[in-house]
Structure formats: C-alpha cells, structure tokens
Design goal:
homodimer; 189 residues; alpha+beta; Jelly Rolls; DNA-binding
Chain lengths: 189, 189
DNA sequence: TTTAAATAGTGATATTTGTCACGGCATCAA
DNA sequence: TTGATGCCGTGACAAATATCACTATTTAAA
C-alpha cells in the first residue's frame, strides 16, 4: 500500500466529495495498523473497540459453534470495512473472530472516534449511512443465494463476484463461507 | 391502528428524542396508505418510489426465480420498515415483490421526502443510520443461521423470535422463508 | 349454498449433502 | 533432510432434504 491516506480518501470520495481540510480531519481519526498472517484482530469474549478499513491483505470473520466448527461470516479484502458489527455498535463482547488470512494493513477507527466523526462531520454520517445500506443490500443478496441456489451455484456466484478468492483462500474456507462441507465442494467440479 | 402519528413518533423516539415540532415536521413527510390482503405494493419491473413503515398488518418481500418458484426474503409486520431496498436506494426497477398477507396500514415515505428528511433533520439521518445498522446485523444473523443450522433449528429460531408468524402465515410461506420445501417442514414435527 | 382454490399432511422415491476414513502432496520449520 | 501440519481429493456410507403424487380439510369466492 503506497499511500494509505490517499487510498482511504479516494474510497470515501466514491460516495461524497471532500475538501483537503475535510479529508485531513477525517483521516486524523484513523490509526494505521499492521497484522501478520494468522494473527487474530478480534477474539471471542474481548471488547471490540475498532472497525477496520482494509488497505491491503485479507481477513476472515468467523463464528465458531458449540461443536467447535468454524463458519465464515465474511471475507474482507482491500477497500472493505470489517469488524464484529454487533459487538462494535452495541459495545458488547465479541461473538466473532477476525483473523488474518494474509499479512494485512488496515486503518482502525475506534468507537469513540467513530462517534466523534459523525457528530463532527455531516458528510461522514452520510457516508456511513450509504455504506451501511450497501452492506444491508449485500447481506440480502447472500440470503437470496441460500434460498435460491444449491452449493454449486453459490460457489459459481462467489467466484464470479470475487475471482481472486480462489487464489487467495483455501477451498476449505470457501466451503465454510458457502455453508457446505469441504468434501462436497471438492466433488462439485 | 388508533393513532398512526403517535405510533411512528414512539418508534422513532426509541432511538432519538424529538420535540413536538420536530415530530410534526417529520411526520408531514409521510403518507398514510391502506392495502388489502393479497394486494401488491411493489411489483417486479416497476419503480420503487417509497419505503414503508408498517403500522398494522403483515407483508412479505418475495423473489421469484426462473422456475417461477417463490422465495421469501423477509416478512414485515407492525413496527417494521420494508421495501425493495436495492431498487429504492439505487432508483432502479424492482426485482422483488411486496405483497400483503393481511390487510395492512402503512406510512409511505417517498424517495424525495426520504432525501429531504435527512438533509433537513440531523436526527433522522442518525435514526436511519441506526436502523440500517440494525438491519445489517439482522441479516448477518440470518446468514449465520443458514451456515450453522438445519431446517428444524432454523424453524425453531424463527418461531422463538417471532411466535406470531405461526398464526398469521401459512406454513408453506414459512418454509419458503427458511429455504426448505413445504413437505420437509411439514415432516419436522 | 356450492364450487374452486389454498393449505396441510404423508407415502414413495430420488437427489443432495454430510461424515468418516484414508492417502497423496505441498509447505514450513526444526 | 526430516517430520509435522495443512490442504485436497475420493471412496463408502448415512442423513437430510427435494420431488412427485395423492388425499383431506379449510377457506374464500361465485
């Protein structure tokens, strides 16, 4: 990642335009962080003080059930926001794990700064509203894929939306994201 | 519904508090509408000019696939917001159907008034942000239920969250919401 | 009232998917 | 290099779910 500040600004300006001053003010609320492959950014039972904007790398958001079986709620790569939103917004303990699949560079935005940001910046409040709406629509699309499609179709949809995942993520993880066993996924093609 | 204005105001004030003037201003953007059981509020291919706040009754948001098979994206009853959000926010044609399961009374909020509302009211922008976040978290919970649970467990989760659905909705529709055939659902108990 | 449509249950069977077990590679660290 | 670990495929079988066909009952409309 050559220029994190420019990258974040460009990301925000896809939604709303900013003056240089506004951009600098906004970016001052973020903290640049690096994580190594395999590192846990969020762990179950801990506080979730930050939402992350991924600059480079790849992370997975995971739920572990009573049988210690892991289910991938989502992947997040460059240009994506991620955290345990339930825990972050309600300021409860994490029920999800956020783990790096690759070395990852991200901006962290603390809950306090998150609140400050949209108290102080009408534009950022608008920005987060749009992002949140987009997230909601995206989730609904994923729900529809469970309702309408079998494992093979869901796999094809995932790869056509996100071809790079095939190179970057083990197939067992793709299976976990799709809600299918790794053996079944392996036999689909 | 005895007093729609009071009902809507109380709903909003669960998130942010309002003065009488603010409440009146906000409510002036909404239009009261009645629909009959079986009536289509949104139809595929049409414009989606409004988001609806349900005061009484029950509606279902449906996707129809290539085989003319219907899949229920969500139900909305009293105190819920509903529309084809994808179409509404992006101002494209509807890909979903919104149909009344019961006679329904709802406030309609036009796209123009929606935009005006949160240009003019910081509080409503905050309100919609919170609602949108809650919707996103809710969708993620539903995705997790597909990842972690079989048909019987999903059915139990749905009923424990929403017991009244069992009385108000045919089981074939519950099956459609759960992503399971009506025959399988019928055999689960 | 009479009829048509919607809803619900169930048997028989096919299809999809999960589970367990095993082996082959590749990767990575001691 | 060697051994451990993760990743991937696959056979054999079990479990979950879908599909088709039929019936009974309820609901709603003519």
């Amino acid at each position: 990642m050559n220029n994190p500040e420019q990258f974040l600004r460009a990301h925000i300006e896809k939604v709303i335009s900013l003056t240089d001053e506004e951009a600098a003010f906004i970016i001052s609320h973020f903290q640049l962080k690096t994580f190594r492959k395999g590192q846990f950014i969020i762990e179950v039972g801990n506080d979730v003080n930050e939402v992350y904007f991924v600059l480079s790398g790849l992370v997975k958001l995971v739920y572990e059930d009573q049988d210690a079986k892991q289910h991938i709620v989502s992947f997040a790569m460059e240009d994506w926001w991620e955290t345990d939103f339930q825990a972050f917004y309600t300021q409860n303990k994490a029920q999800l794990t956020l783990e790096c699949i690759e070395d990852t560079l991200a901006y962290g935005l603390s809950f306090d700064n998150f609140e400050k940001l949209f108290s102080d910046s009408r534009k950022m409040e608008r920005f987060f509203l749009r992002k949140s709406i987009a997230g909601h629509i995206g989730s609904q699309t994923r729900i529809l894929s469970f309702l309408t499609s079998n494992a093979r179709e869901r796999y094809e949809q995932l790869l056509s939306k996100n071809p790079s995942l095939l190179q970057r993520v083990p197939k067992s993880s793709l299976a976990s994201y799709l809600g299918v066993s790794r053996e079944t996924l392996s036999r689909l093609f």
